[in-house]
Design a protein that fits this description.
The complex is a heterodimer of chains A (443) and B (91).
Chain A (H helix, E strand, L loop, with lengths): L1 H17 L2 E4 L15 E5 L26 H8 L3 E6 L33 H8 L5 E6 L5 H7 L2 E4 L19 E6 L2 H11 L29 E5 L9 H16 L3 E5 L7 H16 L18 H12 L2 H14 L5 H22 L4 E5 L15 H6 L5 H6 L3 E9 L2 E8 L5 H15 L2
Parallel strand pairs in A: 2-3, 2-4, 7-8, 7-9
Antiparallel strand pairs in A: 1-3, 4-6, 5-6, 5-10, 9-11, 10-11
Helix pairs in contact in A: 3-4, 7-9, 7-10
Chain B lengths: L8 H7 L6 H18 L30 H7 L3 E2 L2 E2 L6
Antiparallel strand pairs in B: 1-2
The chains are: A alpha/beta (443), B mainly alpha (91).
Chain lengths: 443, 91
């Protein structure tokens, strides 16, 4: 532990160029027992930590100190992890690049002029930059997997309901999960074991049997049936990404996995369905930020309408405002059926299609992101282009299925991630296959 | 093609209780039609068949008082009177 205290100043110095952390913890020299004993961890700043500032990367919560721990945080403390600090992210988890933060963007440690991905970009960059062993992120539409892919680390979005959302400050509450991020599959599986404890304070947490994910990593993969949807290699996919992912798929085939290309037609609607549902939920979930009980309070005003509108004008960044307003529109009278209800019906279509695929196949495989990490500022003035980068990840959130990103290659030192998805509560299979990918990809 | 007139940032920002600057209003006025045109892709999806994609059940617990952190929560409230949160004028 005294080594860590010595290294802490170095970590803070290195953070100045990466900006992975918004707030650092006060470390002491105590070490606790547990599965995560001695391991350092970055916690995404949308996850509540008692006594440690939690900003959601927003001016709205710039000075907010939660009075309680998220369930996942109490679990990592119980298992002996050392919380280094609160990781930077897109404001209220709304973004794919960690550029929409009131505390400045995070830089990709592989190329400081590029984005780390988002919204859990600080969590991923902390690991990739050697500033933490592990991280907690959250994933509403790809926010763990995208930065894992861009930063060359492992990130898993659990099945909806496996990990308690108690203490996760909500953005899209029917879509999101807290999940583990790590340098390798073993550590990712270990962290998932620690945080996937049932919690009755989250009514959407499912009381199903939890397993030791680390015990199944070396299971034989021969005979595993892998589906590769053509829709995940759409027109916007970089050829280098496609080549790297297919190289890995071919290697899995040579190990005995059975590969088949398929079509899942409804995936083409997933991005539109996701954004309508997520923005609608955001409109509702962020209505609580009026400045009365917590958060930015802009001062006196003549009435409640002026006070709330002013607090939210100064508290929220532009991307958050854009999503709330679009969500309000989708839920409004006259448009509710055409947008929100339609999106939920399409969601059922997509979920059903995934169930049909998993009745014949064990895993679905494709690229995590259609491109390599893009340059800082490249997509900021074109929000639709930014939203399109989530095209391969959102369907897992709509269906609630588990999905992991594993590094499978790189191009000019920029990492490429392969995405593995499986049926509900089948994290064991994607961790097992992911472990094999890690061994054969040799990245 | 979505009718530009119906996507009025002013109307929906007022409904959202967010005061937008004139510059923000102008940017959203340009961006909203393109975004909503993309969302209109969903009109091509055939959702005529009823699909029950998952079994949902309500979760309840017994109404038994437990320890709370009400005091710690009240400590954060910027303006209060006793244990009441002080709010703005309603009218």
């Amino acid at each position: 532990m005294s080594n860590l205290l010595d290294e802490f100043e170095g970590i803070k110095e290195k953070n100045k160029s990466i900006n992975a952390y918004i707030t650092f913890s006060q470390l002491d020299d105590s070490i606790s027992d547990g599965k995560l004993s001695g391991k350092t961890i970055a916690v995404k700043d949308t996850i509540s930590t008692a006594g440690l500032r939690t900003t959601c990367a927003s001016k709205m919560l710039e000075n907010y100190v939660p009075p309680y721990d998220a369930h996942a945080v109490s679990l990592i403390k119980k298992h002996g992890a050392i919380i280094m600090g609160k990781a930077n992210c897109d404001e209220f988890a709304m973004g794919s690049s960690t550029e929409h933060s009131a505390f400045g963007p995070t830089h990709n440690p592989h190329d400081l002029e590029r984005v780390p991905g988002g919204s859990s970009g600080g969590s991923a960059a902390a690991i990739a930059g050697g500033l933490a062993d592990l991280a907690l992120g959250s994933d509403t539409g790809g926010s763990i997997r995208c930065p894992a892919s861009f930063c060359g680390i492992v990130g898993l979005k659990p099945t909806y309901g496996l990990v308690s959302r108690y203490g996760l400050i909500a953005y899209g509450n029917s879509l999101e999960q807290i999940g583990p991020m790590a340098k390798n599959v073993y550590d990712c599986a270990l962290l998932l074991e620690c945080i996937s404890d049932y919690d009755n304070r989250d009514a959407t947490c499912v009381n199903t049997k939890r397993i030791d994910y680390t015990s199944h990593l070396e299971d034989d993969i021969s005979g595993l049936k892998i589906a590769v949807p053509k829709e995940f290699f759409g027109p916007g996919t970089d050829s280098i990404v496609e080549k790297s992912v297919w190289n890995t798929i071919k290697k899995l085939e040579s190990e005995g996995a059975i590969i088949e290309e398929i079509n899942i037609e409804s995936i083409k609607y997933s991005l539109a369905a996701y954004y309508i549902i997520a923005m609608s939920e955001a409109s509702s979930n962020l209505a609580r930020f009026d400045g009365l009980r917590y958060g930015l309070h802009s001062g006196k005003s003549k009435d409640w309408n002026e006070l709330f509108s002013n607090n939210r004008k100064f508290g929220f960044g532009f991307e958050v405002k854009r999503r709330i307003i679009l969500g309000t529109f989708s839920l409004s009278s006259g448009y509710f059926d055409e947008y929100y209800i339609k999106a939920q019906k399409v969601r059922s279509l997509i979920t059903n299609d995934f169930k049909k695929v998993f009745s014949k196949f064990d895993v679905i495989v494709g690229p995590t992101m259609p491109t390599l990490a893009f340059k800082l500022g490249e997509k900021l003035t074109d929000p639709l282009s930014m939203y399109m980068s989530d095209i391969d990840t959102v369907s897992a959130n709509l269906a609630g299925i588990p999905s992991i990103s594993i590094p499978c290659g790189n191009s000019n030192s920029l990492p490429i991630g392969i995405q593995l998805m499986s049926s509900h509560f089948n994290e064991k299979t994607i961790l097992n296959l992911g472990n094999r990918v890690e061994q054969i990809a040799g990245v | 093609m979505v009718d530009k007139k119906i996507i009025d940032p002013k109307k929906y920002s007022e409904l959202s209780k967010i005061d937008l600057s004139p510059q923000e209003m102008e940017i959203l006025d340009k961006q909203f039609p393109e975004i909503l045109e993309y969302f209109d892709l969903l009109s091509k999806a055939d959702t005529s068949e009823d699909i029950d994609s998952q079994t949902l059940s309500n979760i309840f617990r017994e109404d038994i008082p437990k320890d709370s952190i009400a005091d710690e929560i009240l400590d954060i409230v910027p303006e209060k009177k006793g244990r009441f949160v002080k709010g703005p004028r309603m009218m």
